[in-house]
Write a structure and sequence with these properties.
4-stranded antiparallel β-sheet; mainly beta; 7-stranded mixed β-sheet
């Protein structure tokens, strides 16, 4: 059974940066598309970014405004989400997820993902 663990969250000041990591146990993530999602208090979970199995195709949600970057390291079997120039509105629990059959135009749809981590809290506050 694949298990995902997110790390790298924490408290950051507005304008700061974070790099979230997603690692896997019980198998490899290298044949799956990877999605990052977030859920703010009182809001629905939303797609942030996604990347294909080979790491070439990526998609970012419109709200990321060039501040987010998704990547993966096939050798380390990890995926990452970098967030720059953070805003208080970025405060949320961030989740990584794995999904088969990667389709770029639909990869921000959380229903396409089978495996989820527990999430890592990101709080942007001064």
């Amino acid at each position: 059974q694949l298990r995902l663990v997110e790390s790298g969250g924490g408290l950051v000041q507005p304008g700061g940066s974070l790099r979230l990591s997603c690692s896997v146990s019980g198998g490899t993530m290298n044949y799956f598309g990877v999605g990052w999602f977030r859920q703010a208090p009182g809001k629905e979970r939303e797609g942030v970014a996604c990347i294909g199995p080979e790491g070439f195709n990526t998609k970012l949600a419109d709200f990321t405004w060039g501040r987010f970057m998704i990547s993966r390291d096939l050798a380390k079997d990890e995926a990452y989400l970098e967030i720059d120039n953070q805003e208080p509105e970025d405060t949320a629990v961030y989740y990584c997820a794995l999904g088969p059959g990667f389709l770029l135009r639909a990869c921000l749809d959380l229903n396409r993902y089978d495996y989820w981590g527990q999430g890592t809290q990101v709080t942007v506050s001064s």
